[in-house]
User: Fold these one by one.
Assistant:
Number 1:
Amino acid sequence: MARKCAHCESRKGMVRFEDETFTIEFAGVTATVKGLSGWRCEACGEAEFDAASARRYAAAGDALVVREREKLSKEIRRIRRKLGLSQVAAARLTGGGHNAFSRYERGEAAPLPAVVNLFRLLDKHPELLADLVA
Ligand SMILES: [Zn+2]
């Protein structure tokens, strides 16, 4: 009996693949992981990695998320300081909890895209801050 696909449950067949390169995408950045092996579904194309490959793929994805969160933390902190806002004032402005910016800037939490977008606009047009806090 053919191996069943865990993704689509088709029994059309799982085909072995070895030493393939996969690309992981997160928040517009990519990482490639080489030398992955496993099985691919003939019906839906979904890959099921071998245990070691699955661990390497997951670790690469986690590293990508951590790296991007660190970049975002630094960017948020830089813009907040440029605007002359305390963490509490920045949280008041964006509606987060009083310690939201402390958590963003330590990488413990990711700010909502609305917060990131607002800060990027204020980075380009800091004079608009006066309209927001008035
Ligand atoms: Zn499938």
Number 2:
Amino acid sequence: MQASEQCHGYTATNTVDFKRVQRLIRKHTSIVISDAKQDFVRARIMRRVRELELTGIAEYCDKIENGTEPVSNFTSLVTTNHTHFFRERHHFDILLSHLSDSLKDKIVWSAGCSSGEEPYSIAIALLEKYPDLLDCGFRMIATDLDEKIIEQAKKGIYPLERIEPLSNAQRSQCCVRGVGSQQGQIRIKKPIRDFIEFKTLNLDGELVFNHKIDIIFCRNVVIYFDHETKVKLFANFADIQNKGDLLFIGHSESLNNITTAYECIGNTTYRRK
Ligand SMILES: C[S@@+](CC[C@H](N)C(=O)[O-])C[C@H]1O[C@@H](n2cnc3c(N)ncnc32)[C@H](O)[C@@H]1O
């Protein structure tokens, strides 16, 4: 191989294939994958290439484009689902301090909920203050682009060590411990699992809600979206929120130069103006 054909150890063909992968990721998830992530993304896709016994990444891209590989399999491979219970705990304290005595007819949306720790943390935090949460007319919606992760979130099963951030009272109120083959795992109690409406939704698509959303958690999701997609998404959020409603974003995200529809009221916490 000539040195001129190589770039950081990849051949020219590899680079063309990766550009195609980047375009497909952008098209189906809005995520912009930098060249620096090439090793990481390539390794994930190659696992699937081997599973399907394909000749390489180009053939895999063909299958996505001609519909013989479901797009959901592809998006599952390339999204980052890292999350944990009570991530960015200050948000839950702010949430509780801003809510009124009644949650009747209020709606909270966890947008980009991954495997469910975020919406379950919201429910767990609220249940302490509002014991009648599950039947007071309050609604919780949790969505993610990744179908597989939504199926996992609905199950609400986690290794025991994942619930370390929960107090003993929260553990006994909200979790059951697995026995036998489920030893070492916990499951979120059924009434809480059933209460949350889990759905797949691409945030880059149309956001159709027949109600305004009082509280939106959209944390650590838009970090890899391009500027234009962020502007469109936060404009859509502003449309579905009323003055005074809350929006929580991730610790490394900001609304500067994205929207003026919100005012910052705390650490990565915004209120609709
Ligand atoms: C890093 S996780 C964040 C989970 C949780 N919000 C938190 O902060 O712990 C990012 C999630 O965003 C989802 N995601 C990425 N692009 C998306 C899109 N276009 N629409 C909806 N969800 C998306 C991913 O599937 C992933 O589960």
